[in-house]
Amino acid sequence: MTALPLSGVRVVDLTRILSGPFCSMLLGDLGADVVKIEAPGGDPVRQQGHDVGGLSWYFAAFNRNKKSIELNLRDPKGIAVLERLLSDADILTENFRPGVLEGMGLTAARLREINPGLIVVSVNGYGSTGPYADRPAFDFIAQAMSGYMATNGTPETGPLRTAPPITDLVAGLYAALAAVSALRSRENGGPVQRVEASMMMSMLSMMAYLSSNALATGRDPVPTGNDHPIASPYGLFRAADGDIAVAPSTEVIVRRFLREIGLEHLLSDPRFENNEARLANRADLNAMINEALAGGTQDDWIARLNRAGVPCGRVQSMTEALADPQVAAQEMVLRIPHEGRGEIAMTGFPMKFSETPLHVHHPVPELGADGRASLLDAGLSDAEIDALIEQGILGPGTRGDGG
Amino acid sequence: MTALPLSGVRVVDLTRILSGPFCSMLLGDLGADVVKIEAPGGDPVRQQGHDVGGLSWYFAAFNRNKKSIELNLRDPKGIAVLERLLSDADILTENFRPGVLEGMGLTAARLREINPGLIVVSVNGYGSTGPYADRPAFDFIAQAMSGYMATNGTPETGPLRTAPPITDLVAGLYAALAAVSALRSRENGGPVQRVEASMMMSMLSMMAYLSSNALATGRDPVPTGNDHPIASPYGLFRAADGDIAVAPSTEVIVRRFLREIGLEHLLSDPRFENNEARLANRADLNAMINEALAGGTQDDWIARLNRAGVPCGRVQSMTEALADPQVAAQEMVLRIPHEGRGEIAMTGFPMKFSETPLHVHHPVPELGADGRASLLDAGLSDAEIDALIEQGILGPGTRGDGG
């Protein structure tokens, strides 16, 4: 098996739920050896989402390429086991509320003692300093506070939450980038450091022209739904059998679009001759476009317009998107055989590497299944591990087939 | 000045508009030396967004920490200059349509000849293979095709585009993570490789439980707007002076929430005793919660509920979010003095590094301003540079104060 970009990197993962597990999964996808430490009973996400044969596919989608140890960190013996694992790690990932790690005795000073090379990666709600540092975090709240929700929706709906837990995911992605960058730096003689990303600030950084224009003008953007605030034609239009999204980004492409649908003559009509005029007469223009498109199917128009260089596509439902031929060509739905759980489907790897393609090198772990192997590896004996299981420090799922 | 995580890394950047420039800016923020090659006239985003004193703050927000060379790559002499820059680079970033780079003569074989260590980073719409590889890309279309739009909105709105160009940004972030990972791998003896991320596949990978559940059940999610599909109470509620978002994630936190607002007794009412019952009677429950909250202000409730461990927060507009005290504490609005352009405001760095804090080490570049310095650095003479300006290969903005 070819080495992956992070092969040989050891991650001890204390994260749970979503933002942190996404970060540690990205590190695992990139080839790191990720040991997920789960509290007794396991990550709550094991109980969320649709259950297939006893396994949550939602959990599976965020915890592939990880090992699992079920370990009671409320007991000092559990902390001692964790410290053994940390002594040999490159990276510790955590998404507790700021201060919780320190409360477990794992202060910066203690971590330095255990392992002076350890990079600590934190994902949290609002950042570890500032007036909201101690607040409990949640995606919906970070969407609301970052200004994102106020831009999503229409004037009729008002501020609208978006369904995917986008602030968790963007923060997890930033945290992974920070982690790999800090690792690369340390490996090149740079300092050992603590890195973090928060859900609210990560989302704020994604507001693009909405934040730039607000900073420049002091005015808030108006939510415009599917109408582009400053471009026409743009949006959803109706072909014979369903909607298509069309986004002509320049005058040249507007001309190509109108030419393909037989409306090029409108560009010599004063009501439509330039973008400003078209914005003023958007409703009329859209009606004419819908009428023109009614003569063809989605597939016809999409093929034809794309050939002419007009960005457009079908509005796909989730299941349609997952069945899309391009999604198949990009191997973006994985079907992973799993011992005891049948075949598990999940979305694939959006990062493509020409020489070291990412793949599932460790299946979704059963709770605690890698405890014995990982702890033997960390230098514990089978007898010590058996005693820890006996004492309830290691969970009952700790595989008993070692020694 | 302390070295940053990517100090010493050289990036030649052919990207324009948004997805690619976000990727190369992240590399620049992390400390890489990024030379942005702009076609004559410059990146089109220089003309987009609100203009302050002749500068687009939208452009500024995606092009800090880069140098600029205005170079005509339609002329073989321009390509020759580019090849000089590439011969000494670690990373080439590009977001052309697949095949365009090769069309410029920069095939994989030629790039290997010029620089056998060069990592090529591509951001594109749909991936460089598969039936849609050649289609023009645009955020709105990637939102539609990835299944994302169909989950955003409410049953009344139907599929709804979100305002921030989220597919550009997520793809740019993935591409940066892939780039740093490939670099780290190469520096550790791994292969030199080409990496890429596409807008549609990056967005598809962010659908979380929406895609997991669709794969598990074959059914599409229903857009639910601000109501959580499977949790109640949850959503926006009305305090005396405005809305607050409340997201109690467990039964324990639901109890804390209802206790704080004086409604704990509802939990012994069969209509509200568990989540299932509350979902069935959501409208009644929400009305009672709104009535209870009407007695206090947003600030009162938010302070009180957060203290009780209930995730909640204000729904902030863009300008409110930018003025938030936590945003200030996290230094998430930067005000950068700029020679000739006054002070430029932009959002800051969501990645926090304890030992090497990110900062603006190169201001937003004027078009072509770094051409002379960068090319002298690459070994060209002042006379050669003057000749290239004379021939129109280098733009008129190329700083004339060398030699």
Automatic annotation (TrEMBL), chains A, B:
Record Gene3D superfamilies: Crotonobetainyl-coa:carnitine coa-transferase, domain 1 (3.40.50.10540), formyl-coa transferase, domain 3 (3.30.1540.10)
Top-rank taxon, per record: Bacteria
Transferase keyword on record: yes
Record's keyword terms, sorted: Transferase
GO MF terms held by the record: CoA-transferase activity
Designated name of the protein: CoA transferase
Species this protein is from: Psychromarinibacter sediminicola
